[in-house]
Specification:
The protein is mostly beta strands and 184 residues long. The protein is 13% helix and 35% strand. The protein has a domain of 116 residues: Immunoglobulin-like. The strands form 2 sheets. The protein has a 5-stranded antiparallel sheet, with no helix packed on it.
């Protein structure tokens, strides 16, 4: 005689099956839109503040007379170089040497830099304060002339930095003209 053995589940409730919900949850885009708007507003404010602090590019007319003391400040040993910046653009450097052969201590020098095209017309006209090279290693560090005034007989290296040069520029050395000198 065969005996029938029955196994019974101690938990009489059936095991629930986990099934994915058929309802699609809608994403709330409002917080993301607000965060994006805040980031854009902050970026605009930062750019406006940074641009407001920059002085407007000063352009000296080509016909402007050089400063009378300019004859006492010969600029020599011009060297040009270029490098790439992180944004993929090109930076142009104009290095040189300046000597104070006059009798006054110079505390500021403003130089007009003229880049010319192939027809020898001015392709770019910029006026910048001359900045002296303070150190060269581990990198070139610049300072205004007022930080290290040029006494009579002093000589110093300088550098101009151009983030952009006109595409019409002929590639020759630019013309440098001392248009203003501060002295004491």
């Amino acid at each position: 005689m065969a005996r029938e053995i029955r196994v019974t589940d101690p938990d009489p409730q059936p095991n629930p099956q986990l099934a994915p919900s058929v309802e699609k949850q809608e994403r709330n885009w409002l917080p993301m839109a607000i965060a994006s708007a805040v980031v854009v507003v902050i970026a605009v404010v930062v750019i406006a503040v940074l641009e407001h602090g920059k002085p407007a590019a000063k352009v000296t007319p080509i016909s402007a007379a050089p400063d009378p003391y300019a004859v006492s400040l010969p600029i020599t040993r011009l060297v040009m170089s270029e490098s790439s910046n992180l944004a993929g653009g090109k930076v142009t450097y104009v290095d040189g040497h300046i000597a104070n052969q006059g009798s006054r201590t110079v505390t500021g020098i403003t130089v007009q830099v003229l880049f010319r095209d192939v027809a020898h017309e001015v392709a770019q006209n910029e006026t910048q304060p001359l900045k002296l090279i303070r150190i060269r290693e581990p990198y070139v560090d610049l300072e205004p002339v007022s930080a290290a005034p040029l006494k009579p007989g002093d000589e110093h290296d300088f550098r101009f930095i151009f983030d952009a040069v006109s595409p019409d520029w002929n590639g020759a050395y630019p013309e440098l003209r001392v248009v203003h000198v501060d002295s004491k």
